[in-house]
Design goal:
The protein is of the alpha+beta class. It has a single domain (4-93), classed as Spore Coat Polysaccharide Biosynthesis Protein SpsA, Chain A (Alpha-Beta Complex). It has helices at 4-12, 32-37, 54-64, 83-93; strands at residues 21-26, 44-49.
């Protein structure tokens, strides 16, 4: 709930813009769904389910996806603005590659 809006904004502000953003609400009991549904963007889709855990949520998102590639993000993560563009470029320039990933910086703000 604390970070979901910033997380979604980091996705919607990508330099690559041709994507669908699928949010799987895994039984949250806070105001997460209200925050997410208040964001107006045609690329954003929200689906709510009873709590089933991370793996089930990932699989539910995959089932809803229509694109060629899939990238996961959690509610407390942020993407740099060029993440999708750079990963797509890496995959297209290396057709033998099955995945593209990026580095992680952990920031503890507690």
């Amino acid at each position: 709930e604390k970070t979901i809006k910033e997380t979604i904004e980091s996705i919607l502000n990508q330099t690559f813009v041709d994507f669908e953003l699928i949010v799987i609400n895994d039984g949250s009991t806070d105001s997460t769904v209200d925050i997410v549904t208040s964001i107006q963007d045609s690329r954003l889709q929200v689906f709510s389910y009873p709590n089933a855990g991370l793996a089930a949520s990932r699989n539910r998102g995959i089932d809803r996806a229509t694109g060629k590639y899939i990238s996961f993000i959690d509610a407390d993560d942020l993407w740099t603005p060029d993440k999708l563009e750079r990963q797509l470029k890496a995959l297209e320039e290396n057709p033998q590659a099955a995945v593209a990933y990026s580095w992680t910086d952990c920031i503890d703000e507690s």
